[in-house]
Amino acid sequence: MNAAALDFNALFDPDFLSALSRLSLSARRVAGGGRHGERLSKDLGSGVEFKDYRPYSPGDDLRAIDWNIYRRLGKLSLRLFEEQQDLPIYLMPDLSSSMFLESPPRIVAGLRATLAMAAIGLDHHDSAGLFPFSDQLQVVFKSKSGRASVMTFARHLAALVQDTQDNPRQTHLATAVQRLSHMKLRSGLLVIVSDFFDPEGLEALRVAMRAVRHRLLLIQLTKKSDADPALQGDVRLRDCETNEVTDLTLTPDVIARYREAYKSFNEELVSLAKRRRGAVLQLDVDQDLFEQLSTLFQSGSLQV
Amino acid sequence: MNFANFSWPWVLGGLGVLAAGLFALQILRIRYREVTVVSTLLWRRAMQEAPVRKFWERFKHPWAYLLILAICATLWLALAEPQPERDSDGSFHVLVLDGSAGMAAGERYAQAIEALKDQVGALPPGQRQVLWSGAQVRTLLNPGEDELLLERRLEKLVPQAAPAGVERLIGELAMTRHGQQGTEVLIFGDAPVRQAVIDSLPQGISVRRAQAIQALERNTGITALGVADAQSGIWDRVDVFLQVQTSDGAAVDAGALQIDLDGQPVGAPLRAAPGERNGWLLQDLPALGGLLTVRLGAEDELALDNVASIRLPAKPYIDVQLSPSLDSALRAVLEADPAVRLTDVSPQLVIRHEGESLGGTLPALEFVDAGRQAQAFLLTYPQDLQGENYFADAVEAIGLTQIDAMALADAAQRPIEVSMQSGDAWKLSLWQELLGEDFNFTRSRAFPLFIANSVRWLAGIPAAYPYVAAGQPLMADAAERTVQVVDDEGRAIDPLGVAFVPEQAGTLPLAAGARPLSVSLLDPLTTTTAAEPTLEVPAGAVGGGASSNHVLTVLLLLALLLLSAEWYGYRKGRMP
Description:
The structure holds two protein chains of two kinds. By secondary structure, chain A is α/β, with parallel strands linked by helices.
């Protein structure tokens, strides 16, 4: 499959879409202030599971006062319950040139993973927003909810590919994340789907992440050649996004150094995610995406 | 091993330059293969972590270097054209292809050419020269020239009806290469080389024959055809001598000879020449300048000696008018000359005293008073001719060189001089005192000869050539006026002061409208192949190693093979 043949049917076949419902995603905690959902909110409110007590303050709901405690101790205390709220998911698929370069292009797996994450969230009554990026962040929609929105997502993603592949752009992930952080979005789960080969490096991303209040899930799209490049001899590498060239004489020593750099890059990415209490999910774009997701969610849920 | 195009220092120097140049290319070569990748971020990081390169670390493909060096060295050697070396003494080889008449027999010439080609291919071009020895000597290959030129230069060369000239060529080579060490002359053909010639060669020059002489099984040829005044004494008749030889010495039947004169069979009988085997005389043939041709009826291996021709001399009577004033002094001499007819009607020339009007402007033998002419003999030629061209011949033809000039000078008490001047007509003026008693001239044996020669010279009888054979000097009768040999365009080709030598059988044009001469082969050595087995014949071709072409082919194939190996290695990713 090449980038030119990427249309809706090629990207999202019905079998793939129906299989997505078997996957589940759960978060340990989500911030309050949103609609009711199936996940526990860190806010204490009007749920059904008791969580704690706190002293009464004027204006509190009188229905929450535990009158038994008042009778025994003469103090007004409120019973607090854990409230289950929805998990806002902010999906940031990478649409830069590097996603369209190889065969098969990473964009296919990237968009499928994006749709998968959206479908999982919507299937569990979460809301999902779509913020694709390349050299800048686009806001397709901030929040969609309901299972019916999956197809809306799919159509938008397919349309984005058609628009983008004719106008390749560089990756500026740090800029995109920075802009997202400036948006007044409810705290949620930020899912970045990319190869993370940002010319500015992970350090810029790490700095930009400081302003992000969301939990983080980094879906890294990889190929086998990333770790084990099939290059040899004297080569002139041309960066598909910056057009920058790097002349190399590929000796075993240089190859070994590259592998070391790639390993270090992945470790930095994991470290960055963990620092934000997030995780890195590596997907091999040459393998079947659903099988990989099934393996990852074989327990039925993924704890982030 | 030698090289056709380069010397050893050049070859080795070139290899050194190639090795150094390729090494430089190897360590400096940047042959990038451009690859577009999703990001060069990690590659740049890997390179930043790499230590600074050192110059010699770029030499990292020794096998690739050796392979490309082998390819270039092979091509370089092919360019140098290695030559298998046979002689370690570096001697120079002169290969002589015999192109004389004898090589026209059977397959001799073709076999000699094949042997020559093999030999040329086995010798370094710089150490061999190829000559062709036919009627003339031609250079087929100069030292250093490519052997491929040989084929082309041999295309139009066929054996010529000329005697073998290899001995003469060897003599010239001995002179030109005298003092140069190590020259070997290798003869391809059956040209005879006498032991005397070999013995006379200077040190350092040797002669060998490439192939053994192939004797003709049975060949008959005309080896002599000459003409002389008729034994019968008749002025306008000549006798012809004819001789035939065979390779096996067998007797020849005279009936096998076909003889015609100007295309008409000769009726005169053949008479065996006394003391000559297979020699015959044809007597009293008319001396009218006709062409006598003799043919052998039966065909044999060599056709070039089966026919011979000779131009018979034209000997018309000379009508002379004698002045009565000289009748007593000269009549007896003139009447004794068979060529002279004394007449008073329509003479060709006159003999008179100076001042007599007898004969007008006809050519004249004129006697003058010694006081009126400084020279004892004064030749006069027509004004439209260049007299100096005739002077030497005239002195010889008239026989003035035979006269005892000292005796005449003593008697005359003054120098005897000969001179030439231009005038109205041919004339020979001499002192009339020479006819007197004070001089012993009229009683000398030279006097009748002088008168006879003077009459013939004044009559303008062209020279007669008693024997005209290829390779033999053209000798005319001295008493007659010689005629220059010209080429097809009428330009004189007589060498000054030297007898002309016809190179091959055929027609020889003469100047002044004289009938052309006919040159015949008439070479007993060619007919009998009686060459002495004096020359060593090598067992095989000299320098019988591989031909340079073969070495060249092997080198080019090797280069192709190495190139294929490099390409295979490159395709398989084993070659940078």
